[in-house]
Amino acid sequence: MAIKNIARAIVSVSDKSGITELAKALENAGAEILSTGGTAKLLLDNGIKVTKVSDFTGFPEILDGRVKTLNPKIYGGILARRSDKKHLQEMKNNGIKPIDMVVVNLYPFEATVAQKGVTDEEAIENIDIGGPCMIRASAKNHADVAVVTDPADYPAIIKAVSENGGLADDERRNLATKAFAKTSAYDAAINSYLTNGNDEGITDSLSIKMRKVSDMRYGENPHQSAAFYVEKTDELYTGENQLHGKELSYNNIVDLDAALQHVREYSIPACVIIKHTNPCGTAIDNDQTKAYIKARECDPVSAFGSVIGFNRPVSEATAKELKPLFVEAVIAPDFEPGALAILQKKKNIRLIKPKNFNLPNSNVIKHVAGGLLVQGPDNITFDQNSLKVVSKRQPTDTEMDAMKFAWTVAKHVKSNAIIYARDGRTIGVGAGQMSRVDSSKIAVSKAQNPIEGCVMASDAFFPFRDGIDAAGKVGITAVIQPGGSVRDEEIIAAADEYGMAMVFTGIRHFRH
């Protein structure tokens, strides 16, 4: 495998961590170092001989530094194929010397625009031009040129240069791959800013900027490889956010996200117990421990091996109640010291405290063969003023409160979704069935407490009256649903037969 020596390197970095050590290693290996601006000053101050780019090109920096490296002597030196005699002759004719390594990282655009009060002028001045151009040029010509964009790679490069005088073919190719990912992500960040950071909008083109934070043991199944990527710096499920337990799995993160999105819906203490992204129990109560007990009692069998979400710091009393149950993970804004002491005795339970528990929901992206589907988040909340009572009987205040709760839960249950609830707790959950009446029957079969007197929520309209019949036979007193079926009159008539109150929301909550 061919080693390409480094006779000449251009070094121009915004993040200067570790650059002095790398430059010294290059100098010790006999490389001439070209540099600009603050990087050149830093290297000179540390006793490293530097040729300024303006001296190398014979052309000064102009336009307040906007033009420094955009010169044929730089790009000819980077892009020339060393095996092409014509290229070599053209270089000689034009006084161009080869550049064998490019060490560049970019203006801190993302850090700049993340600051409060940053102006458009400040943001635009932090769009790097020369850096991405040099990175792309050297990455394209990685057969002859090494491109270095990440200070984390410096130690390995110092070792290679010190021991071998240069880098091998596979090393240069790996660096080039990383470099193209860097410029792609940089352009995506700029694109996002220039479209006003429109995280929830649908734009003409889609740029997705993600950073891998971890490889995973496997995906949904052991035969599937997987990794975890994050947007920006919002690492909800990694690093400092995990207070205890085993490494998170792919399925853990999927369920934790379902728990987080659901439990944040409630303004009073709430508990959500998630199994395979669906809530198998949800409850609200001014006493967090009671909320947990009520959520667990909805389906104690499914609660085994679940992921649990709380919207308040987990109390010591709740931790004592939770401890006997086998739980994969718990996510909450915080954990009281006493609660941590109790739960950390369970060796494998993952305890997650996101640094940004209320991070806004962004677009939903799903992969399909040959493309991506993108939709905005389902941020619609319950609006009692927009409800339409369609039954003969008006719902009572107690029924209306129960329907508000049940409708909120239904938003987070896979379609077809049927929820039976009362007193701020789910009694039965029917999820992910091919027909709505099947979901109604499953919700009944799951119930551990009496269903009579409950309300029912449906995430979409009832196409037939059979779902209402199933509910009426078990004593459901009120129904909340979107309405909009061609058989609405038949559905309403069925509700009236059972003396149910029925309200239409005019909005559905499909969750595929």
What does this protein structure show overall?
The structure is a single chain. This protein is of the alpha/beta class. The chain folds into three domains: 3-194, Methylglyoxal synthase-like domain (Rossmann fold); 246-352, 3-Layer(aba) Sandwich (Cytidine Deaminase, domain 2), CATH 3.40.140.20; 384-504, AICAR transformylase, duplication domain (Cytidine Deaminase, domain 2). The protein is 36% helix and 20% strand. The strands form six sheets. Strands 10-15-14-13-11-12 form a six-stranded mixed sheet, with helices on both faces. Helix 1 (19-28) links the parallel strand 2 and strand 3. Helix 14 (316-322) packs parallel to helix 15. The chain is elongated.
Measured by DSSP, the beta-strand proportion falls in 15-25%
Task: Tell me, rounded to a whole number, the average pLDDT.
Answer: 88
Number of domain modules? 3
Q: What percent of residues adopt helix (DSSP H or I)?
A: 25-40%
Major sheet strand order? 10-15-14-13-11-12
Shape: elongated
CATH fold title of the largest domain: Rossmann fold
Please report the number of helical segments.
Answer: 19
Global Rg = 30 Å
Query: Could you state the oligomeric state of the chains shown?
Result: single chain
Biggest sheet overview: 6 strands, mixed
Q: At CATH's second level, what is the architecture of the largest domain? A: 3-Layer(aba) Sandwich
> How many beta strands in the DSSP annotation?
23
Low-confidence stretches: none
Distance between the termini: 50 Å
CATH superfamily of the largest domain: Methylglyoxal synthase-like domain
Query: What's the CATH C level of the largest domain?
Result: Alpha Beta
Could you say which structural class the secondary elements and strand pairing correspond to? Answer: alpha/beta
